[in-house]
Amino acid sequence: MFPPADVPRRHLPWIAVNVTEVLQMINPTEQPQWQRARRCASDACVEVAKVGGQYLLRDSKNPDRPPMRFTEAEWHAFVAGTKDGDFDF
C-alpha cells in the first residue's frame, strides 16, 4: 500500500487533495476554453469554461487569478434560475 499506513497523513504534504488539479497536471492538454457572452463589448466581462465535470468562472480583467469552481449541478441550477428570472432586480 502506498503511502504506508503507518505514516501519518500530516507528514505527507505532497498528497494532493483536489483531484481535478491532479488530473490537469497529468493531462495538461485539457486547458480551459474560456467563453464570454456574445453581448460582451469590452474587456470587463465574466468568462466561463468547462473542464471535466466542473464549470469555471473568472473575471476577464484578472485572468491570472484562480477561477471560481462549480459542480455541474450547481451550474445548471444557476442557469435555470437565471432563465426563470430568479436574479431579476
Condensed summary:
The chain is an alpha+beta fold and 89 residues long. 22% of the residues lie in helices and 20% in strands.
Describe the protein.
The protein has one domain (9-83). The chain contains two helices and four strands, in the order αββββα. The chain has helices at 19-26, 72-83, and strands at residues 35-36, 46-51, 54-59, 68-71. It starts with 18 loop residues before the first helix and ends in a 6-residue tail after the last helix.
Please give a handful of descriptors for the protein shown:
89 residues
Enumerate how many helices there are, as a single number: 2
Q: Report the biggest beta sheet as strand number plus sense, adding barrel if it closes.
A: 4 strands, antiparallel
Helix content: 10-25%
> What is the 3D form?
globular
Total DSSP E strands = 4
Termini separation (Å)?
Answer: 56 Å
Averaged pLDDT, please? Answer: 79
| Rg | 18 Å
Give the helices and strands, then pairings.
Blueprint: H1 19-26, E1 35-36, E2 46-51, E3 54-59, E4 68-71, H2 72-83
Antiparallel strand pairs: 1-2, 2-3, 3-4
